[in-house]
Amino acid sequence: MPHLIILGIRGIPAAHGGFETFAERLALWLRDRGWKVTVYSQGSETGERYEDRWEGIDRIHLPVKQDGALGTIEFDIKATRDSLKRPGMILTLGYNTGFLCAWLRLCGRMNYINMDGLEWKRAKYAFWPRLYLWINERLAAWSGNRLIADHPAIADHLATRTARSRISMIAYGADSVEDADPAPLARLGLEPGRFFTLIARPEPENSVLEIVTAFSEKPRDAKLALLGNYCPTNPYHEAVRAAAGSDVVFTGAIYDRATLAALRYHSIAYLHGHQVGGTNPSLVEALGAGNAIIAHDNKFNRWVAGDAGLYFADIEEAAACISALMDSPDLRTRLSAAARERWKREFTWPAILDQYERLLKTGAGIAYAKA
């Protein structure tokens, strides 16, 4: 029985972000195809290390003493040390602790690394965190047996760090949303077909302030549902609040799948301001829901959304894109159809997970036969 150990996430079932969702989907996919899968989970209800099983997946829970980023580093160190005690190939999600990938390499362990995006370029980080991430990206690129890029531009970037022959490009997946109960919208003060949606961490590189400013420049006869946590002590968060007109709805962070499906399926369009990164999960999920897209104009978003999007470089262009979709139902219909076609061609979960299994079986030295 082939054995995969997954490192670099907080645990499954998914409750945090794209990597956790992907890990859950991959673990269940491999379980159904005869793999043994072990996932490390950050935190322990007992305060001690313990193991259990969830849906046939082995989970190892490790307590941590620190909070925030230091707690994550503490957890990653403990998980890496623990993984050295058991056989199996390793899949590390993210390079934020690339020094641990180097440790695994020196110990002779097979480690495939999903290299995530260009984390060290994010505007939210000061010089020292950026330097830390830059160094760890280099260490991970050197030490991984195989590097996985989720976007062609990320693969091109990684090719400046190591040989292209060591890099595989596999994107991210999403489910199709063919229908959604609109009931959750009423609790948020929203009506089907009368709102836009933006799901992003409120950070400068995600263009949240620019989008909110563009939306709020005049009455829209529609609302903007703004998902995410906004802290009153964070200057950027407060700048977004100050720019928001009366039709901007701050929903808070939402993880409930039924509510997210309703927000995506019933919105006029999905607004995506990410400037740094590869294939963003929220953008892929919007395509799967048939959302028309308004996205920041960069190589990452243009490859993902393709003909399903209108693109902006500044506040004026964002406002024009919003107005264009408000004024033209035919344009919304055309972009929505293009979104579903783009999702079907590139981002279905079975296709993505099948590519991962092929790659992992190659690393494990197993002949591949498609189910």
DSSP summary, beta strand count: 14
- The general outline is globular
Kindly report how far apart the N and C termini lie.
16 Å
Overall pLDDT, averaged?
92
Largest sheet: 8 strands, mixed
Strand residue content: 15-25%
- Which percent bin holds the helix content? 40-55%
Low-confidence stretches are 367-371
Radius of gyration: 21 Å
The helix-strand sequence is EHEEEHEHEHEHEHEHEHEHEHEHEHHH
* Helix/sheet category: alpha/beta
Major sheet: arrangement of strands: 3-4-2-1-5-6-7-8
Count of helical segments? 14
What is the fold's blueprint, element by element?
Layout lengths: L2 E5 L10 H14 L4 E7 L7 E5 L2 E6 L5 H16 L5 E5 L4 H9 L4 E4 L12 H17 L2 E4 L2 H7 L8 E3 L13 H5 L7 E5 L8 H8 L7 E5 L7 H9 L4 E5 L4 H9 L4 E3 L8 H8 L4 E4 L2 H7 L3 E4 L2 H13 L1 H18 L2 H16 L7
Parallel strand pairs: 1-2, 1-5, 2-4, 5-6, 6-7, 7-8, 9-10, 9-12, 10-11, 12-13, 13-14
Antiparallel strand pairs: 3-4
Helix pairs in contact: 1-14, 3-4, 7-8, 7-12, 10-13
Question: What report would you give on this structure?
Answer:
- The protein is of the alpha/beta class and 371 residues long.
- The protein has 14 helices and 14 strands.
- The chain has helices at 18-31, 68-83, 98-106, 127-143, 152-158, 183-187, 208-215, 235-243, 257-265, 281-288, 299-305, 315-327, 329-346, 349-364; strands spanning 3-7, 36-42, 50-54, 57-62, 89-93, 111-114, 146-149, 167-169, 195-199, 223-227, 248-252, 270-272, 293-296, 309-312.
- The chain has an 8-stranded mixed β-sheet with strand order 3-4-2-1-5-6-7-8, with helices on both faces. A 6-stranded parallel β-sheet has the order 11-10-9-12-13-14, sandwiched between helices.
- Helix 11 (299-305) links the parallel strand 13 (293-296) and strand 14.
